[in-house]
Structure formats: C-alpha cells, structure tokens
Amino acid sequence: MTRSHRTRNLVFIFLGVLVLLFKSSYTGPCAELFYRYASNFSVSFAIYFIAQLGFYPLPYPKLISAAGALLAVELFELTNGFGVMLNFYDPWDYFANALGVGLALGIDLLINHSLEKNLMESNDGEKLS
Length: 129
What we know:
The structure is a single chain. By secondary structure, this protein is mainly α. It has one domain (about 5-129). Helix content is about 80%, strand content about 0%. The chain has 4 helices and no strands. The longest helix has about 35 residues, at about 90-129. The protein is globular. The model has no long low-confidence stretch (mean pLDDT about 90).
C-alpha cells in the first residue's frame, strides 16, 4: 500500500468520524432521518477504510474489506452491540450500514479507476513521444 493510498484511507476514516461526532449539529433537510441513521452510515463508511488498511496485502482487498466491514457492522446490530454497548434495535440500521459500506466501496473503486485511467493516459503520452 502506497503512502498516498494509506493517507487517503485515513482521510476517509476521519470524515466518517467527523460525521459521527457532529451529527447532532445537523439542522438541514431530513434532520430526523439524518440523526437516526448517520451514525450507522458514517461508522460503516469508516470501517470499510479501516479494513482497507489491514486487508490490503490479500487478494481482492476491496471485496474482502467490504465483506468484512459489512459483517462487522451487521453483527454489531444483530448482537445488540456485541453485548458490550447499548444498541437500540431498528431494522433500518442494517440498510444504513449497507449504504455506508456501499458508498465507501464505490468511492474507492471510482478513485482507483480514475487513477488507473490517468496513469494509462500518461503512459500513452510517453510512448507517443
């Protein structure tokens, strides 16, 4: 994993944590919906990028990270906070968790696709010169 890749993951983890910390300050549209599900969404988002830090050397790190993050957050819901934390059951939390991991995976794939495209374009330019 390159330093820029690790830094990018840390930035996304930090963004997920910021949403979690400041969700109660949100007063915009759908504030009630945001307040109820922002925690699930943002934590799931951050956990995907945390998993990326650990699963990177394995084959298919994005798939393993997404599956691992989704498994962790869904088990948290299923076991009522792993029996350690107080968690109020809401079946929509499962959906918010999946959306958070899905967005994280989508952003990761989009950034990698963009970087690969730029790399190929710059390599094509060098070959033509």
